[in-house]
């Protein structure tokens, strides 16, 4: 019997070849193989005593097991971080992964202390094909990791200013919803929520002298009123009518805050809400784990979250956070190992584990998950703030 064999069409062969190539290309890069030349390398980093860093610390053993790279970090107070890092740059101290605050990026980049990420993303042996820089919220990548159109770091510990409030205290005072505007907060809500005889106050605004006062306290009332510290020519703008309106507003609101508010930092403001001393605070999204920790907070199911109030200039919430960058002065081996860690901890793959461990990732995709939105009530107001604030 004669057998007939059908010759596949050329298009079929091309499709099959392309599929095989795509499959091979998909699996061509792995973290384990990329890290093999750097196994046994120790990289040094500085962490803060905040939820996002504790979350990273929980995940680091997974990275170390996969790569053989040791991540050694020191936890120090935020107030000491910039000084320590600058001293390390100047003296050659141990520092491979650089923590970069939004207000430090210009200084660090202009002094050539940071290696542009292009050095690593252009290297196919180091660059994860799934890096997807467009997957970060643009405002976070631009603000925390980019200077003069050059990207130096990837967003890591990210904050939006939100309003955390005790809905039970508000309900007892006759309010079913939080204030929508700063004017409502001052003139309608604050008087009914302030009871000095019970040591209860309407609001706490972190106001400790220094960066907390200027970057957190002042800006929260300047921006919504249309004011700013500097104008477009980098000259002082504090005497503008809009800035003066913001500063005067802050002074009026202080009579509804706890005694000693001028010495409140983030921890004191968060604790005041957690212990039932105040009804509302405007604070970073990263403090959600603290306020939901029964060992640290009494607020329980009374905790609710919304965007910061709007002002005459609209929704202008505080924006804060950090990026992780590679020290340009580290040797080549440590630079590569540091990049692999930064790329991994900020990846889309690790966004959900980081979130579940207590961090706030900068990846847009993770917040589109309805299960995530339902589990973490800070997500919707935070995303609204990052997208439109």
Q: Can you describe this structure?
A:
The chain is α+β, with helices and mostly antiparallel strands and 389 residues long. Helix content is 43%, strand content 16%. The strands form 3 sheets. Strands 3, 4, 7, 8, 9, 10 and 11 form a 7-stranded mixed β-sheet that branches. The chain has a two-stranded parallel ribbon with strand order 1-2. A two-stranded antiparallel ribbon has the order 5-6. Strand 1, helix 3 (51-67) and strand 2 (70-75) form a beta-alpha-beta unit. Helix 3 crosses helix 15 and helix 10 (211-222) packs across helix 11 (241-253). The radius of gyration is 25 Å and the shape is globular. The N and C termini lie far apart (77 Å). The model is unreliable at 1-8 and 10-26 (pLDDT under 50).
Please give a quick description of this structure.
The protein is an alpha+beta fold and 389 residues long. It is built from 17 helices and 11 strands. The N terminus is likely disordered.
Largest sheet: 7 strands, mixed
String of helices and strands: HHEHEHEHEHHEEEHHEHHHEHEEHHHH
**Total number of helices:** 17
End-to-end separation in angstroms reads: 77 Å
Oligomer type: single chain
| Mean pLDDT across all amino acids | 91
Unreliable segments of 5+ consecutive residues:
1-8, 10-26
Radius of gyration over all CA atoms, rounded: 25 Å
- As a percent range, the share of helical residues equals 40-55%
What layout of secondary structure does this protein have?
Elements: H1 10-26, H2 31-35, E1 42-47, H3 51-67, E2 70-75, H4 78-91, E3 97-101, H5 105-110, E4 114-115, H6 118-121, H7 138-145, E5 146-147, E6 150-151, E7 153-166, H8 167-172, H9 182-193, E8 201-204, H10 211-222, H11 241-253, H12 266-274, E9 278-284, H13 288-291, E10 303-307, E11 319-327, H14 332-345, H15 348-356, H16 370-375, H17 379-388
Parallel strand pairs: 1-2, 8-9
Antiparallel strand pairs: 3-11, 4-11, 5-6, 7-9, 7-10, 7-11
């Amino acid at each position: 019997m004669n057998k007939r064999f059908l010759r596949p069409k050329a298009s079929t062969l091309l499709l099959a070849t392309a599929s095989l190539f795509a499959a091979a290309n998909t699996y061509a890069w792995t973290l384990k193989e990329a890290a093999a030349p750097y196994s046994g390398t120790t990289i040094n980093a500085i962490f803060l005593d905040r939820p996002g860093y504790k979350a990273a610390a929980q995940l680091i053993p997974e990275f170390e097991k996969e790569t053989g790279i040791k991540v050694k970090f020191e936890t120090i107070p935020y107030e000491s971080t910039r000084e320590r890092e600058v001293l390390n740059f100047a003296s050659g101290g141990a520092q491979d992964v650089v923590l970069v605050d939004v207000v430090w990026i210009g200084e660090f980049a202009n002094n050539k202390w940071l290696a542009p990420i292009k050095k690593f993303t252009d290297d196919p042996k180091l660059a994860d094909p799934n890096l997807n820089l467009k997957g970060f919220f643009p405002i976070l990548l631009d603000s925390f990791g980019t200077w003069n159109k050059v990207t130096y770091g990837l967003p890591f510990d990210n904050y939006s200013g939100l309003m955390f409030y005790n809905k039970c205290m508000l309900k007892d005072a006759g309010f079913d919803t939080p204030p929508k505007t700063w004017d409502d907060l001052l003139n309608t809500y604050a008087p009914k929520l302030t009871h000095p005889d019970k040591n209860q106050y309407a609001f706490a605004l972190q106001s400790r002298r220094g960066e907390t006062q200027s970057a957190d306290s002042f800006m929260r009332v300047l921006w919504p009123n249309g004011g700013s510290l500097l104008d477009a020519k980098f000259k002082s703008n504090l005497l503008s009518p809009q800035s003066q309106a913001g500063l005067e507003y802050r002074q009026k609101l202080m009579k509804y805050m706890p005694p000693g508010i001028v010495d409140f930092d983030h921890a004191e403001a968060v604790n005041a809400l957690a212990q039932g001393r105040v009804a509302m605070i405007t604070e970073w999204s990263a403090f959600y784990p603290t306020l939901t920790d029964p060992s640290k907070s009494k607020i329980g199911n009374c905790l609710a979250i919304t965007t910061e109030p709007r002002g005459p200039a609209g929704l202008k919430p505080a924006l804060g956070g950090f990026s992780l960058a590679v020290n340009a002065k580290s040797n080549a081996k440590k630079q590569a190992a540091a990049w692999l860690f930064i790329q991994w901890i900020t990846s889309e793959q690790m966004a959900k584990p980081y979130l579940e461990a207590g961090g706030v990732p900068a990846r847009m995709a993770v917040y589109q998950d309805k299960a995530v939105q339902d589990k973490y009530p800070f997500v919707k107001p935070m995303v609204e703030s990052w997208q439109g604030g």
